[in-house]
Amino acid sequence: DAGVIQSPRHEVTEMGQEVTLRCKPISGHNSLFWYRQTMMRGLELLIYFNNNVPIDDSGMPEDRFSAKMPNASFSTLKIQPSEPRDSAVYFCASRGVGGGRGARYEQYFGPGTRLTVT
Amino acid sequence: DAKTTQPPSMDCAEGRAANLPCNHSTISGNEYVYWYRQIHSQGPQYIIHGLKNNETNEMASLIITEDRKSSTLILPHATLRDTAVYYCIVRVADNYGQNFVFGPGTRLSVLP
Predict the structure, then answer these.
(1) How far apart are CA A106 and CA A51, in angstroms?
(2) Confidence at A60, pLDDT banded by 50, 70, 90
């Protein structure tokens, strides 16, 4: 398996532009997570999906951020309009169905997308 | 979810055991202890998890105290590639899966 795939790996854009980050989870995994990491705030959970349904989006910073999961093999995180403070590394992670509570519930992270908004 | 406390940084000599502590004094009976690490410029990587028994896998060992208020991750023979930030997370499994709250973690530096 290729693992979690994210694209692009690097994105540089100007303030006000729309940015779309993409994620392909590991085949067969039924949960998907979007995280953001900055030096100031560390690693923050933005939103997570279970069986393509958004379960908790309380970490989404504001209405400029939106996430979709149209099917089990694809998710997007969109920022419109982008601002310099959105500059961060955005990680996508997926998780499979485990056996037993807590067993094999580890998340598998993608390589991240480094976003720079100028 | 129970909070965790970890030292901000630690050093370890290459080839020696690295023992990374984590305090979780408010842990409840159905909460698991998870360890992840993040090597520079990469996504976090799962290491190990446990409930109350000590656990061992190919990467590390997890020692959980009898009262479950603290745990120690042990890398038996640290290498330079083990230099990373190590996160201790306590979380209960819910019906929808698990979302993790990553604290600042412990920055482990393995020295030659």
Answers:
(1) 17
(2) very high
